[in-house]
């Protein structure tokens, strides 16, 4: 009775990434009401600077009240529905994007397409750039939601660019070439490469070498490059953030073919901590892409009221300068706090400089260096320790034992409790090891919820692991 799209299982909702959220929602931690509940460390939200936003709203009540010189704009905003967006908002957003990049590059508001968040922006670009069955290359590990955002409705395919912990999961020329050749073996036409810069889940910004490598690669293959830069304002320590647009400018590639094939995705969900406002954007130097994406944006518009409020906020230069600086300081402080706590338990992290999370190495805690071992450890951490973290296999990491752990979506007190729980867990594992004289396998008879883990999670992990082994032998 339903369509094939409605009944297919390609959304990715049964990934362990989303299943962890479901378990959290059944038993959420609350300091007073549910102190033994699950602490949500799988959600990349920025809740560290809400006081700055709320302070601005209190000091600018006319903006929140949709007034200008005591004249109500409510009716005008309520009736406005042009999918090109409010000019004032596009201007202020373009300026804000430049400010994040230290004004080393500027953005033309006419090249901006407004979308209902980065999810909509990425999907819209897929519709514009790829036909069903054509592919984009993505470096691993990558954001689990891309399986939904890029593929589910568009019919596009993803081919992984396998990156390794041996070089800090950096993109290499050989990895790009191998991914491109793998796509050809699968008879997939490659339409482009999509990267997140800074990376989700790694929490690292792309190096200048990687950016130049990507520009050279897409130029030689005559394909597109999408740079998802929604975490650009969260870079809290060196090396600083370098946008792909800055690379193109410094290489004098403006108004060239490759200039038109590079596209940026941006959002205010992470930098300003406003995921509920659903504010995203596509920036492209290709007039045809801008035109097509603008038409498609009518399926996911940003409300005029939201645009007006944020145009007022972002046009306040004193506020934006202070916010970006203070938010970065708080992120750095919280990042250091969590990683120092992890180090005390003997857990190390990939050296990061951005984002709302750390890429955490728990390989030494696995019962076996396999994705089965990773799943066993993940279930223990969720159900017994009471922490929802994201296993690397959900991010298509080719090496078992890595996890994404978020630190900016909770209070300092909650983070300390989370670290205490994890420390106690690691200590208990060490005691069992010392008592037996050998590593004990993790308990396979774990307490399970009614919605057990699907076979899909394990089949994906085994496929990824196999690919990783094949690369190690090359």
TrEMBL record:
Gene Ontology MF: a single term: transaminase activity
Cofactor needs: pyridoxal 5'-phosphate
Domain Aminotransferase class I/classII large: from-to ranges: 39-422
This protein's record includes keyword S-adenosyl-L-methionine: yes
Assigned keywords, A-Z: Ethylene biosynthesis, Fruit ripening, Lyase, Pyridoxal phosphate, S-adenosyl-L-methionine
Coiled coil: none
Catalytic activity field: S-adenosyl-L-methionine = 1-aminocyclopropane-1-carboxylate + S-methyl-5'-thioadenosine + H(+)
Pathway entry: Alkene biosynthesis; ethylene biosynthesis via S-adenosyl-L-methionine; ethylene from S-adenosyl-L-methionine: step 1/2
Annotated EC: 4.4.1.14
Classification via PROSITE patterns: AA_TRANSFER_CLASS_1 (PS00105)
Highest taxon above the source species: Eukaryota
GO biological process: ethylene biosynthetic process; fruit ripening
Family: Belongs to the class-I pyridoxal-phosphate-dependent aminotransferase family.
Protein name (record): 1-aminocyclopropane-1-carboxylate synthase
